[in-house]
Amino acid sequence: MSSRYKIIIVVAAFLTMHITTPLKAQIQELVPYGDFEQWVVHDVKESKLIGGKTERLYEIDATDTLELNTPFKPKKGSIWATSNAYAKIAGITKASVTVYPEQGIHGYCAKLTTQYAECKVLGIVNIKVLVSGCLYWGYMPEPITGTSNPYGRMSWGTPYTKHPKYFVLDYKSSMPNKGTITKCNVTSESTRSGNDEQEVMFILQNRHEGADGKIYATRVGTAIYHITDATDDWVEDFHIPVIYGDARKSPHFKPYMDLGPMKDNIYGLNSKGENVEIIENAWGDENTPVTHAVLKITASIQEAYSGTIGNTLWIDNVKLEY
User: Fold this and answer.
1) pTM score of the predicted model
2) Fewer CB within a 10 Å sphere, N or C end of the chain?
């Protein structure tokens, strides 16, 4: 047999081996509605006592338009919720908007802002609070009926059982007033020096309900990243690795990756339909079953009614990689 034919046979065998041997490729899955191409339009007419204007709210779900002052309820398979709020407190209807759809580089994206929510009572008394844009997986019943403990009104997380390697997204950040942190609630306003940050928090939990009705969670996976500086443009296909087991033992550990309590703890519905605090009390590992995934993306890491005015975070193409 000539050397030429031997080479052909060797090459053919090599190609056959690589065609028939499965390769362990990385697989990315777009999270449902994670491309932010579909939004629900949600108009709220505020009470005449505070001006009577109509605010347009937005929610992430199959494209729809709700009738005026209709509470939003996800019903098309979306797991997303936002910090946009329709409130009715002591008979007064008020709306707050901090999350918007906006044109990005690949269609629409989500824009999260830190800004004042203001209103004038009878055109005289000016009331304002500082609010920060937030996306999360979960649900908050509308209308909101109080202002205390806003995080305690949200149900955080979604049922989930997989073990992804990375949380992936595109993002862009603006921080025009870096170096100052403002706290503004109904009764007071103050500004101090300090650097606010933006956060992407994706954690995997194994939850169970105790006899006391409280929800306890084992942390299985941790993928948390703080954005500390503005970007010149979009950062595309940004990978945040999921750390399985005790994140404190990882060389990538940051104090904000530790178990709770957090500045604003997360809550969930127990078997009685009560929204109770989720108490993370143990670390799992890569073999621990996952029951829930929790996602929070926010334009500010400060406590409620605090942050850096003007901080803006754009988010697009949220994926999980396996």
Assistant:
1) 0.87
2) N
